[in-house]
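Format notes (please read before filing issues)

Several people have asked whether sequences and structure tokens are stored in separate files. They are not. Every record keeps both together, in the order shown below: the sequence lines, then the token lines. Line labels are part of the format and must not be stripped during preprocessing.
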Amino acid sequence: MKYYIIAGEASGDLHGSNLIKALKKEDSNAQCRVWGGDLMQAEGGELVKHYRELAFMGFAEVLFNLRTILKNITFCKKDIDRFKPDALILIDYPGFNLRIAKWAKKKGIPVHYYISPQIWAWKEGRIKDIKRDVDQMYVILPFEKDFYEKKHQFQVDFVGHPLIDEISERPQVDPELFRRENQLDDRPIIALLPGSRKQEITKMLRIMLSTTADFNDYQFVIAGAPSQDRDFYEQFIQKENVHLLLNKTYDLLSLSNAALVTSGTATLETALYKVPQVVCYKGNRISYEIAKRVIKLKYISLVNLILDKPVVTELIQSDFNPKRIREELGLILDDYRRAVLFLDYYDLEMTLGGKGASVKTAKLIVQSLSN
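Then the structure lines:
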């Protein structure tokens, strides 16, 4: 079978790579043509466009890059036509993917959506497009099944969260060897996860690094995104007590005592590694003001959303400042606060279900095509 897979971000590349691996086990003749990244390519996906060319963050940024986005959509449709896939598999990235889904449905191409767009957060009206254009939806957050089936009468499959597989299958890290190879000293580590896009990283790191002098007993280590190179980060690692590790986020989290994390999938990754964290977000002012009026959620972090309570502190916009970072970082380094947080993290993992998200999804896709 021929599968055309579209992912537009680093997290989608990760989940897409595991899905390709699972598809090839279920279908020995699987051919995958992909929009994604290095990980999907490494699993045998024929890479059409890298997500670095697709990542535009926020309302204003999308508007300024609208011409490029429209060109990509046109190119994608032509490329799908040439490839003639047996199935189109979309991974999150709704602004782009739902447009492709509408077109593909009219062409008679089976449309599978892995990792639901977060329409429960905003743009709930997209449910009409999803019900019309998506043949099968595979959701990874437990509350999404009720959202779709009870609220909107659209059947979906809850497959569990793929991060559980990704983290559980990784080999353990030797702390001494890791520190030696990466030129880290013996001090405890505070990880900084500032995101994956240049504009996001620049904005977040400048504020995250403002408190390094207040925690001299710790070393701050930036988790470099796979989409950026070392030269870009040089401007941020001139400070004493600051290090950079590229493409080693999970290894870093496995040895970290605490973390400052930009909201997104990274908040869940950090929690699954049982690292106390402060969730941070500061966006373009125009984008933030628009988002504040249309997004109706109590929380921005997946940890708090899934457990439906304020497990981790969220510092948003003006609250994301040196004073608050210093206060909240001090709190999560306290032993009692950490113990309470670990219990909540355990509940989180139980709520997310067991292993096998990619395998379950691959089986369901292949099964649907054989019927």
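For reference, the curators noted about this record: Residues 2-160+356-370 form a domain with the Rossmann fold fold (CATH 3.40.50.2000). The mean pLDDT is 91.
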